[in-house]
């Protein structure tokens, strides 16, 4: 098995049932980022090895509790113990493999390509009508119908990051082509009531700001967050949805807001 410390901030486990080998694949990344990744799984042994908490492996494997997998994992740990690759705290030593194939496109090329991806526009809101916070995203995506989950991404420097973490709930208000004023305010006005000066705003579940004439409202509570690159992903479990009158959606394409002609 191979623990992969990516340069996007994600840590994954590859081939969790391959017990004859355990190593850590490390993408090229700043030393501070690598130190944070190591702290999430265990501790540094030396420049070429990391001590890994076996409970982290169990969690990332997705197979914890499976009798056959547990037997194989226990055998792997037992083998490592014979060679003093398990310390007194029960951490397992793994060799670092430097990933020489972690190439990525430039920021400019990435943005140019993503501008060609047409996407719906949503106003994400949290707080309440007296102290609202909001942002516009084109990253809202359906994740699962059973259970009903949606997700979106927030830049680490966004003024929306802390309100979302504090309230741990949100509404995704799906915008139509008539909501240009709402989108413009969300993009240009500071956080707070001035950002909500445009639009027919009311109160949803728990007092969350909700756009009455949105194409749809998706009211959620946050069940998962994770950092990926420069952004934090928020996953929400849907508590209630409301579908408004039919209309043309607002679409983000080539760095501009447009109406989708039906």
Automatic annotation (TrEMBL):
Residues 114-259 form the Flavin reductase like domain. Pfam families: Flavin_Reduct (PF01613). It comes from the Bacteria. InterPro entries: Flavin_Rdtase-like_dom, NADH-dep_flavin_reductase, Split_barrel_FMN-bd. Keywords: Oxidoreductase. GO terms for molecular function: FMN binding; riboflavin reductase (NADPH) activity. PANTHER family: FLAVIN REDUCTASE (PTHR30466), FMN REDUCTASE (NADH) RUTF (PTHR30466:SF1). This is Flavin reductase (DIM6/NTAB) family NADH-FMN oxidoreductase RutF. It comes from Paraburkholderia caledonica.
